[in-house]
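Apologies for my clumsy wording, but can you show me some protein sequence, whichever is easiest, together with the matching structure tokens, please?
=====
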Amino acid sequence: MHTDDIHQLELTPLADRCWRLCDRNVAGSDAASVVAYVELLDDGVYEAVWVSVGIGSARFVTLESLFGAALELMAQSMSFGPFKPSPIPHRPPAHA
């Protein structure tokens, strides 16, 4: 993990113990810039709910491990590229 990669990530405060993890390489007006929502739990663990990369949530003991996981998920999502949507089977229109 390169230090420069980490600098593309930014924690934006939402509340006292809650942040939005954003990718600076994506325009702030684009919803894809939000990588995860992060909350500091009572036990001192950070919980990340993945938004634009990955699915689900994960817990981390340090912010460094959270940033590392975010970078890995971002790299994986870029390597997959865009997905072609599943075709919808044709159905004839309903008649009145």
